[in-house]
Each structure stands twice: as structure tokens, then as C-alpha cells.
Design brief:
By secondary structure, this protein is of the alpha/beta class. It has a single domain, classed as Rossmann fold (3-Layer(aba) Sandwich), CATH 3.40.50. The chain is built from 7 helices and 11 strands. The strands form 4 sheets. It has a 4-stranded mixed beta sheet with strand order 3-7-8-10, with helices on one face. It has a 3-stranded antiparallel beta sheet with strand order 4-5-6. A two-stranded parallel ribbon has the order 1-2. α1 runs parallel beside α5 and α5 crosses α6. The longest helix has 16 residues. The protein is globular.
Length: about 270
Amino acid sequence: MIHWVGSLDEDLKACTEVTPLADVFRADCGYEIKIVQLDNRDTPPQLQLDKTIAEFVREYDGPCRTHLLIFYYTGHGYIWRSRPNELIVSGTATAESSSTEGTFPPNANWTKAEQPLDGACADTLIIFDCCFAGNAMKSRLPSKGQRSYELMAATGKDMPATQPGPRSYTHALINALVALLQGGGGFTTADLAQSIHELRDHDKSSVLYNRLVARTRHICLAPLERRSLPASSNAIRENGSVNVRSHSHDQDNLPDGEAERLDSEACK
């Protein structure tokens, strides 16, 4: 969970929504949470963001269906006119107002920093609550096995976001998560996106975007202790069937009841 230090977040106060969301993921889902505050004093924010993402992937990446990486950002966002498909996360509203008391400009290129995610093996979900969040929907990446890689953005391309508060995207995200978790079991990102839309009648601009070329399954979220399949939260809601046939060159000579037993074992 990534946001800007309080001295750079005085106008939005986006940090006030980070703790409630972290509490839902930690207490209700049992997920391990790391909260990172970007600043502009000792090192460039770009290096901080690069390091945060690279180290998180290195520590937690693993096979899809058994590992899920979630990245959440709240704060300012904008784009360079010459590079409209690159999202800049910022501690200030625009590039022009980036002069602060810090040593470095308080902004970082998310599109550059997220490159380690492109090559990860784990299922990956990115959640953006900032202006121009939809501009992170760059060209789709080649699929890698059965991995899912999705983006939930508070806005479409070239659009502003609602400021933190009762009408914000994160506020609806928290309420949607709580409601879906009360239903028990798991739910997909599609369920979550729909619930957010239903809670935000005033703003239907949020999007759920598949980052991969292939049409992959939606990521599934569930509390760790409720996983019916210990290997993965992302297998909970999937439906599938496997036909297994047992063959024997001497099936006619099987003892009575043995054929039925084999069929029964194959269906387990």
C-alpha cells in the first residue's frame, strides 16, 4: 500500500483512507500488509518506488493460483502530454507545482517502476485511486502460463478522481470489501468492481482492466482461513471438470465391485 508522507499529503489527506483499507485486508482477509510512504527528502521518489516494487516481487512472487500480489496507490496522479500512457504518481497536484521543501521533485513514474510486475509469476492486482488512473492501461502484455494480471482504476483515461471522503473510490472499495466478505467464501475482482459501481451512483468511471493478451480468469479474493483449496485463493470460484477413464486389458475379469470402486476413486 503506497501513499505520500503527510507533509506532501496536506491537500488530499489520502493517508486517512489507507489505514481503514489496510485493516480490512489485514484483519478480515488475513493478508500481510506493507505500507510505504514516499517522500522527497533523502532519495528521489522514483528510486523509492522502484525499490518498493522490486523488493516486494522478489520476496513474495510465486506460482499463479498459489500467490497473489496486490499493489494499492492513493494520492495525486497526472500524465506528461508527450507520454500520455505513462502514469506519474505525485505528492502534488501537477508537475508545475512540484517545488517543495524537499530535495527532490515529489513525483515518480509508475509505468517505469512497475516493470518487475510484468515478468512476475504470481497473479497480480493493481488498485489505483488517483487522477488519470486509467492511463496506466497500457498495451496488453503477452500471457504467461495461466497467470492473471488485472488493474482496478478509480477513473478512465484522462479523467480526474474524486477526492478522499465519503464519495471516493477507496471509500466505496472498503465498503464493498466488507459487504462481500460478510457473504462468506471468496469473490472475484469482477464482483468487487460491480459492488463499487453500485455504491457509487454519482461516478461510474472506474474500470477493471485485464493487463494480458489472453482472456484470463478474474482474480479471486478470500480470507486465508476460509480457503477451501489450500493451494490458492484464486481457485475458489473456478468451475471445471475432468473426465478420467480407467483402462484395463482384462476389465471383464475384474472382481465384483472393482469397476465401480475405480470409477468412484476417479471422481474424487
